[in-house]
Design goal:
alpha+beta; 2 helices; 12% strand; elongated
Length: 69
Amino acid sequence: MTKHEIISCDRCGARIECKANAYTKCQCSVVQLTLNEVQYISENYEGCMCAACLLALQGEYREAMGING
């Protein structure tokens, strides 16, 4: 049985277990975003996202800004 809510990723629709009340254990916490990256993502999405989508959007932002790495 799952302890946390199962939700859909706001971007790709993948089913993810949201652990908002235990953020450090949530799958999304592996993606370290800067404040600017968070702002970039929040301009287009409101809900939770899977780590893969967060990484993709981080890469998209960095590419658009000419940031390597």
